[in-house]
């Protein structure tokens, strides 16, 4: 049992990438640090343990990244996906600081995969973690233990007692027992609120009950709610979340990356009535995958079914769950629990509407339908060759956008714009300050790493003063 009568220099709330970067940085600056992670040890690491890469600026090829990826190009990419809902000053600072992040990460034992051939666009922009996010999180925990950071698992921050922007103490639930922690400074790195289905329901209505959460069940936003209720400044749209279409057989929580389904562009996608509802071939998948979570969420019972034939079987990364196969479209529909007659009609109408063209799975090919509503604009070719293959789809929530406002020193800002005296934030809980909408692959880890390090540095400075 830890000695709860002592006063730590820095208390870090959370156990994912952002928390670990803050804790290690503060400890390296000579502070005593307590890190509290709501999850038990076996499930430590939040959504960070599901990640694969970090988007990283670089001015020349490195051992893990090809060519160059400069600030302006990175910024343009961010501007495009956010539609301008970002803060240029904070965003450009984050982008620049990703360069310094790589040596820090390597110093903490994080290892990277050597860059691929250079033909894949992500090998230029994103550094891939060897062993994925789990290996990254384990490396940080090993470093934290080596440095003598106190770590409590199964420990939830319940209430940050704030007086006029100053966190006096933090009430925690330590393995079922209430305790009080005192620290000179506090870093909130407790992620989003996507695992709180009731909170999601307030934005989405009862449909949210059928959403699957791709990451940790421990990101319930308790700290976020607690801070907003005490006058901390809010950023981001409370009703927005990043949602993709995932395999409908995925578990309620923590299915991770392997449940993603990338077959939509080559499919007809029908709802539970066997009817199509959106152009599956509107654009290349990286530009469209993030809208399909929302589209499926708007269908009855929040479920849809992607149907292809054998011609498209090998064109996408397979789901961890086996494909459902049958010799006829009607048989497949029955296996998927759909009305065979309705699906046969939809597929027959689609097939009849396909205009002959040069099919090309790797780019916009103009293979389209004519006279069909909704149309399919690319990769439309008749579904005719057995076996016929189907996958159920459900909305998979990656993260929420609502967060706390921070300044460039990761200091939390109150409603009136004044900085808190001793509260800092990093990671998903403040990401809305930079990412107001949309998503750029690898930017979540960029924000968490950069702001984790700033929060750790500034918390240490604050504690010393
Ligand atoms: C399947 C999947 C794949 C992804 N892939 C990538 C990728 O490749 N690259 C990328 O950049 N981003 C990716 N992301 C997004 C990325 O996971 C997040 O942006 C990033 O992990 C956020 O880090 P964080 O530390 O802020 O939050 P998290 O890693 O979620 O950590 C939050 C932590 O807070 C703890 N916690 C919550 N509430 C409390 C409380 N009250 N008290 C104590 N502890 C609490 C949780 O247990 C958890 O440990 C992916 C997300 C998912 C779901």
Automatic annotation (TrEMBL):
The Gene Ontology terms for molecular function here are: oxidoreductase activity
Q: Does the keyword Transport apply?
A: no
FAD-dependent oxidoreductase 2 FAD-binding domain mapped to chain residues: 9-434
Q: Which InterPro entries match?
A: CobZ, FAD-dep_OxRdtase_2_FAD-bd, FAD-oxidoreductase_2, FAD/NAD-bd_sf, Succ_DH/fumarate_Rdtase_cat_sf
The cofactor required is: FAD
Which keywords does this Swiss-Prot/TrEMBL entry list?
A: FAD, Flavoprotein, Oxidoreductase
The answer to whether the entry has keyword Transferase is no
Lineage: superkingdom: Bacteria
In terms of NCBIfam families, this protein maps to: CobZ_N-term, PRK08274.1
Quote the protein name from its UniProt record.
Answer: Tricarballylate dehydrogenase
């Amino acid at each position: 049992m830890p000695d709860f009568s002592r006063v730590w220099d820095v208390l870090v709330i959370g156990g994912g990438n952002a928390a670990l970067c803050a804790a290690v940085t503060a400890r390296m600056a000579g502070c005593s640090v307590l890190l509290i992670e709501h999850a038990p040890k076996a499930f430590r690491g939040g959504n960070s343990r599901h990640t694969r890469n970090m988007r990283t600026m670089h001015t020349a090829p490195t051992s893990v990244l090809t060519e160059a990826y400069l600030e302006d190009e990175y910024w343009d990419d961010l501007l495009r996906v956010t539609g301008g809902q970002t803060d240029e000053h904070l965003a450009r600072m984050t982008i620049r600081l990703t360069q310094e992040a790589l040596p820090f990460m390597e110093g903490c034992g994080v290892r990277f995969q050597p860059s691929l051939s250079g033909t894949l666009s992500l090998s230029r922009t994103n550094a891939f973690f060897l062993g994925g996010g789990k290996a990254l999180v384990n490396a940080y925990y090993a470093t934290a233990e080596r440095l003598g950071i106190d770590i409590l698992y199964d420990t939830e921050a319940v209430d940050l007692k704030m007086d006029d922007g100053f966190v006096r103490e933090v009430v925690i639930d330590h393995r079922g027992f209430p305790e009080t922690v005192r620290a000179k400074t506090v870093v909130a790195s407790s992620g989003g609120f996507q695992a709180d289905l009731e909170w999601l329901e307030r934005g989405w209505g009862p449909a949210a009950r059928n959403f699957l959460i791709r990451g940790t069940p421990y990101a319930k936003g308790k700290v976020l709610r607690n801070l907003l209720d005490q006058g901390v400044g809010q950023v981001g749209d409370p009703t927005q979340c990043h949602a993709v279409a995932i395999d409908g057989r995925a578990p309620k929580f923590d299915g991770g990356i392997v449940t993603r389904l990338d077959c939509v562009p080559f499919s007809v996608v029908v709802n539970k009535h066997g009817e199509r509802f959106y152009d599956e071939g509107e654009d290349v998948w990286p530009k469209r995958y993030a809208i399909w979570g929302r589209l499926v969420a708007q269908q009855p019972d929040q479920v849809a079914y992607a149907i292809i034939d054998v011609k498209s079987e090998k064109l996408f990364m397979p789901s961890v769950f086996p494909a459902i196969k049958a010799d006829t479209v009607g048989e497949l529909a029955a296996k998927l629990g759909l009305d065979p007659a309705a699906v046969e009609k939809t597929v027959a109408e689609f097939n009849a509407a396909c205009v002959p063209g040069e099919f090309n799975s790797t780019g916009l090919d103009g293979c389209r339908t004519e006279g069909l509503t909704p149309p399919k604009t690319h990769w439309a070719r008749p579904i005719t060759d057995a076996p016929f293959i189907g996958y159920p789809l459900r909305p998979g929530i990656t993260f929420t956008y609502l967060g706390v406002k921070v300044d460039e020193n990761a200091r939390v800002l109150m409603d009136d714009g004044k900085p808190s005296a001793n509260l800092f934030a990093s990671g998903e809980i403040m990401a809305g300050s930079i990412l107001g909408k949309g998503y750029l692959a690898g930017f979540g880890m960029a924000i968490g790493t950069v702001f984790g390090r700033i929060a750790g540095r500034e918390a240490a400075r604050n504690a010393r003063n």
